[in-house]
Amino acid sequence: MDRQNNRRQDKFGGPVYEKLAAYGASDFYAFHMPGHKRLMGEFENPFQIDITEIDGFDDLHHPENDGVLTEAQRRAAQVFGAGETHFLVNGSTAGILSAISGCTKYGGTLLMARNCHRSAYHGAELRGLKTVYLYPQYIPELGINGAILPEDVENALQKPIIEKKQQADGKTEKDSGGDREKNQNRIQTDIQAVMIVSPTYDGVCSDVRRIAGICHRYGVPLIVDQAHGAHFPFSKYFPEDAVSAGADVVIQSVHKTLPAMTQTALLHVQGEIANRERIRKFLSIYQSSSPSYVLMASIDACVDLIKRDGEELFAKHVRELKNFRESCRELKWLYLAGLDSEKDGIWQLEAKLAELGQTADFDRSKLLISARRANLAGAGLTGEELSRILRERYHIQMEMSGPDYVVGIAGIADSEEGFGRLEEALHEIDQDMDEKIPVGVNTADKVSAKSNALPRLKAVLTIGEAAEAEGACRPLAACEGAVAGNYVYLYPPGIPVLAPGERVTEELLKCIEEWLEAGYEVHGLEYDGDGIPKLGIVKE
Fold first, then answer.
1. Are residues 235 and 106 both part of a single domain?
2. Contact call for residues 80 and 233 (beta carbons, < 8 A)
3. Which of 218-232, 345-359, 372-386, 502-516 is modeled with the greatest confidence?
4. Given this model, what pLDDT does residue 343 score?
5. Domain with 531 in it: what CATH number?
6. Rg (the chain; Cα; Å)
7. What is the pLDDT confidence band of residue 453, given thresholds at 50, 70 and 90?
8. How far apart (Å, rounded) are the C-alpha atoms in residues 387 and 377?
9. pLDDT grade, residue 375 (50/70/90)?
10. DSSP per residue over 445-460, as a string?
11. What residues does 193 pair with on adjacent strands?
């Protein structure tokens, strides 16, 4: 019997599928992930290629030397310039968990940026790690967190030094001269790994090259969450990628900025400091034992596309980005970050931020549109409101909104028509602001007193200790001075403003209350029938 004729012809249904199908068929333009934008890439029938580990198709967790997945990962390593590359089908989260677990010992110490994604905190929790935090610089002009300073990394690594520099003759007789030469300039510290995020969700990049050099002097691996920077290697218009900059482990989400399906990512390892064998071990723990061949095929197809047509696609993308950014110079009240603007006052950002160390660079494929200038002039345009206007009036869906800005994600799958729609919308909204704001209002020298910087909290317990401790639930207003038993964050971007084990402060409570008043969905709070927000705390 003909197999085709024997197949069921039932159509898919269900509310999730129907809602997705309706959105896919609509005229909404997606300045959000995934990077294919529903415009690039095609599997005629994904069910036709959805298999498990059968003979001839390799095994992600036990790949054969000449297997199809081994060759696919080698090809990805070549395209991205890495020593070793692994496919991730549980998103960047699996890569971050594996990197942290593989680079630390249970109960060890992790030096991590406080603006890391919550998956990094979960890695610390699962491994019982002590966390030492690096706080990013704050950019008041945009109301966003900036870069991690290399000097702060150096100071943090110096602080817990347990031994001075090793002397050339301080090794045992068994050590070779090469080993002595390799280690004589290293400084021993009880910190086992350093973890930063670059670029941030908002597009801010730290000086990865300098930070990597500092880490390597201490013999400590640098892990970089570069989930939002998978496109960096393919055009000099973008910041330097973390692999080229010397990071030991780099995690990139191909689905965020490249044309691949959601949940696909890559983990790159290079050099000799990171323990590759341990990382491979934890990849098999944190990833599904039945990895999706559809997702792996999506990664491979994306790599193949970049290898074959990447130069042409990125040249076109950069041209469209430059044209769009040039058109935004004319905006009066809205501001597109990363413009290299020649405007006066606080909006001449690029040179200023670099000088202050608040950024090392900015990813110009991130479309961070700030309404802060309009707000300082009294327009009252919040990020949520700007996102709503773009969505409802112009059928443009952005990635996320902050207190007074929105963020869009652009990639090689975007079209000239899409950029044109966003350009027209922003200019119309800007003109609307011009009508609302009184003539003669000058905001050039104003900076909002309101800060969205991460509050600096004291950790009295490790994340793991707090998570395992006996807890209680208390109304948010009565939590000052208590020790947190769970995370509190907005998603996106998924950065905890409060982590388990940290002591709750008045500043933090005020921040959370402002989020709630602004209508944001705050994750980590609980509500009873009375509607009063409550926080999980550790019983002391």
1. yes
2. yes
3. 218-232
4. 44
5. 3.90.100.10
6. 24
7. confident
8. 19
9. confident
10. T---S---PPP---BS
11. 110
**Residue 87: domain span:** 46-167+176-303
Number of domains, the chain: 3
Please give the Cα distance from 318 to 307 (Å, whole number): 17
- Specify the DSSP class assigned to residue 502: B
Contact present, 257 and 97 (Cβ < 8 Å): no
pLDDT of residue 164: 41
Mean pLDDT of 372-379: 86
Q: Measure the CA angle with vertex 166, ends 160 and 167; round to 5°.
A: 155
CA nearest 279: which of 289, 268, 288? 268
In sequence order, which residues have a C-beta less than 8 Å from that of residue 265 and are 6 or more positions away? 88, 91, 92, 94, 95, 227, 251, 252, 253, 254, 255
Question: Could you tell me if 132 and 110 are in contact, meaning their C-beta atoms sit under 8 angstroms apart?
Answer: yes
Percent of the chain whose predicted confidence (pLDDT) is above 70 = 88
Residue 352 pLDDT more than 80? no
How many other C-beta atoms are found inside a 10 Å radius of the C-beta of residue 201?
A: 24
Burial class (CB in 10 A: 0-12, 13-18, 19+), 89: buried
Same domain, yes or no: 104 and 229: yes
CA distance 523 to 486: 10
More confident residue, 303 or 374: 303
